[in-house]
Amino acid sequence: MDFVSDALFDGRWLRALTVVDAFTREALRIEVDQGIKGEQVVAVVARLAILRGVPETIQVDNGPEFVSKALDRWAYENSVALDFSRPGKPTDNALVESFNGRLRDECLNANWFLSLANARAKIEAWRRQYNESRPHTALGWRTPQEFALAAAREAAE
């Protein structure tokens, strides 16, 4: 998990919490708001845990949203290890940093966001396209969605 910041057309800030599965490379969620607090991070991870199961580890940086008591409590109650990147070492979370670079180049820099709702819609459309239509070399030229479905079938066998 990590954050990307941008602005609406009128200069108001927006923040995007990006959640990427390290195994499937799926962008599980991009939560967009004007500010995201620790409680919102917990709400996102809790919803994802219901849909996908509780992860063993979540890799995060040292931002205030990730060192919050709310996330620490949720992680403890769900036996999830929080793996914090070393300060000033974005390479510790290279997958998410690479994803965030693509998000910035292909979506944030390419769009003019007229409102928070407009930003949410455009970013969600880009996330779906990323998961459903973009093959990745690291996944054997499959999309993250195809790879995840194949992995789930193999696990069920």
Automatic annotation (TrEMBL):
One of its GO terms (molecular function) is nucleic acid binding. InterPro entries: Integrase_cat-core, RNaseH-like_sf, RNaseH_sf. Pfam families: rve_3. One of its GO terms (biological process) is DNA integration. It comes from the Bacteria. Signal peptide: none annotated. Residues 1-152 form the Integrase catalytic domain. This is Integrase.
